[in-house]
Amino acid sequence: MAKAPVHIAVVAIAILWTLPTLGLLISSFRPADDLVNSGWWTVFLNPFEFTQFTLENYSTVLFDQGMGQAFLNSLVISVPATVIPIAIATFAAYALAWMEFPGRQAIFIVTVALLVVPLQMTLIPILRAYTALGISGTFLAVWLAHSAYGLPLGVYLLRNYIGSLPRDLIEAAAVDGASHLKTFTRVIVPLSMPAIASFAVFQFLWVWNDLLVALVYLGGNQDVAPVTLVLRNIVGDRGQDWYLLTAGAFISMLVPMAVFFALQRFFVRGLLAGSVKG
After folding, report:
1. How far apart are CA 138 and CA 130, in angstroms?
2. Could you tell me the pTM of the whole model?
3. Of 31, 54, 84, 211, which residue is most buried, by most CB within 10 angstroms?
4. What pLDDT shows up at residue 145?
């Protein structure tokens, strides 16, 4: 009974947090006229009257508005833009934590300092460089941009976590004749999965939900446009198709939710990466 108020508060917060998503889901299955004339909660007055639901919004969004192609484009953008910085940041974190070379601390300080640099400052110079190289408006441009923007956070998180691993493990691997590469692949990576998974969640969600970087470097090209660009255009020039946003928004939420729930058991452990020892 002593913990009852806490449990009640947690349940209440969870319900309040879930209500917008529930409303979005129900609205996405309602006809446009019903959305205009009544709230989504009115479906509970006649919950078994299935004629009040329709798949027309999803059909229009996926096939007429190009959300299906945009969904695939977002996957093509997000997966490499997550894997590339994870690979580079993990190698860099190991080197900064356990390899002795001149300027190691200075490199780490400069990398951490890049976290406070607004990415908006880099948009025009990088776009001009992409235009000169002829890769503007391509997936490669977005991959490189997102990888570069995500690397400072990745190096910071992973270096702190890898640096907190017991030194005895690294020394034992060295005594057994393991090279740095074998130590990295056989010891560091398996033990660092919580931090790697945590950074993967952050990076993937940021890339998937990004609009600014995609708009600048892809230039609104519909052939490579992600879901965020399609969602921006889906309401029409005068906002007349706003009801389609419910279906489009829920489609765009599916993959981030799946990624988060798949990696959530690592997420909390990775959030505290390197903050404690022992």
Report:
1. 10
2. 0.82
3. 84
4. 93
Query: Mean pLDDT of all residues in the chain?
Result: 84
- Tell me what pLDDT residue 33 has: 82
Contact 157, 85 (CB under 8 A): no
- Least Cα distance to 209 among 235, 231, 236 occurs for 231
pLDDT at residue 207, rounded to an integer: 93
Q: CA-to-CA distance for 109 and 136, rounded, in angstroms?
A: 31
In sign, the C-alpha dihedral spanning 247, 248, 254, 260 is: negative
Q: What's the pLDDT at 274?
A: 45
**Gap between the Cα atoms of 220 and 226, Å rounded:** 9
Question: What span, in angstroms and rounded, lies between the C-alpha atoms of 89 and 81?
Answer: 12
Q: For residues 184, 150, 211 and 62, what is the CA-based torsion angle, rounded to 10 degrees?
A: 0
**What residues of the chain score a pLDDT lower than 50?**
273-278
Question: Please, are residues 27 and 244 in contact by the beta-carbon 8 Å criterion?
Answer: no
- Cα dihedral angle (272, 270, 78, 256), rounded to 10 degrees? -90
